[in-house]
Amino acid sequence: MNNRLKRWKGKIALVTGATSGIGYATAEALAGIGMKVAITGRRAERLAELSERLESEGAEVYSLAVDQTLHGANCEIFQKVSAHWGNPDVLINNAGVGLSSNIADLEEEKLQNMLDLNIRAATLCMQEALKYMRTREEESVIINLGSISGHRLVQGHGGAFYSGTKHALRVLADGLRYELAEEKSPVKLCMISPGMVDTEFHQVANPGKKKPEYQFLPLVASDIAEAVLYILSTAPHVQISDMLMRGNHQTF
Questions:
Q1: What is 3-110+139-245's CATH topology?
Q2: Are 211 and 202 in contact (CB under 8 A)?
Q3: Comparing 36-45, 123-132, 155-164, which segment has the lowest mean pLDDT?
Q4: Would the pTM count as exceeding 0.85?
């Protein structure tokens, strides 16, 4: 283990959207460095599976099956984690959804779902985390999972609205980072913006369609988890504002 990661042993991490993909791999990685890991997601059976496996390896895990698009849900997550263990030291703001459609044809329900999870829930989690983090003098970290789609738009893939939500999250994170810098807060606010990652995310975005055939070797969830650990390993005065990642041969 990187010596700088040892300072996080016994600290509390909250990972949203931990039932699969990046959230699942990140929870594994954080448990692997000795953090207490609270995990959330909509699918209780997936959370139970992950909890059981990590606990069998000696990790401390607290799972909460919750739909973050519901009003009051995000506040409740932090209240329960705080009551169970104490206030989180690290927030991995990972939960998100991409639903492919041309903007002109995007159904209101899908539109609202992306707004509620990708922007509203993510912002509320940052707010809730800061209620605890900004009262302390020690280092705390918020890591938002963005997307390279928040930096550019690929035409013809039905992902423009999703790109818009990830761009909005990036702008909101930048604004909040400036606020924290002005008050000399020790809280670090970071983003990771991956390109294509080989997870079930794309099947959710395109239900009924085959798994995409990549013309290059995409990232995998553990690549993003390693990026999370890298951010946590940096010195307290180092802040990774936005880490863009893509497979070596991804050209878009």
A1: Rossmann fold (3.40.50)
A2: yes
A3: 155-164
A4: yes
CA end-to-end span of the chain: 34
From residue 233, alpha-carbon distances to 64, 88, 246 in Å are: 27, 17, 21
Cβ(122)–Cβ(95) below 8 Å: yes
pLDDT score at 252: 85
Query: What does the pLDDT look like over 83-133, one tens digit per residue?
Result: 999 999 999 999 999 988 999 999 999 999 999 999 999 999 999 999 999
Q: Is the dihedral of CA 159, 164, 165, 167 positive or negative?
A: positive
Catalytic residue set: 162
Q: What is the pLDDT of residue 208?
A: 58
Q: How far is CA 247 from CA 123, 144, 201, 218, 222, in A?
A: 28, 20, 16, 5, 13
pLDDT-derived band at 207 (thresholds 50, 70, 90) equals: low
- Residue among 101, 114, 96, 105 nearest 199 (CA): 96
- Cβ(90)–Cβ(35) under 8 Å? yes
**Other Cβ atoms within 10 Å of 7 Cβ, number:** 14
Q: Greater confidence, 153 or 202?
A: 153
CB 186 within 8 A of CB 140: yes
In what helix (H) or strand (E) does residue 169 lie, and over which residues does it extend? helix 160-182
User: Contact, 208 vs 166, CB < 8 A?
Assistant: no
Helix then strand then coil, % of the chain, to nearest 5: 45, 15, 40
Asked if 37 and 27 touch (Cβ cutoff 8 Å), the reply is: yes
Residue 176, token pair as written in the block: 């909040």
Indicate the domain borders of the chain.
Answer: 3-110+139-245
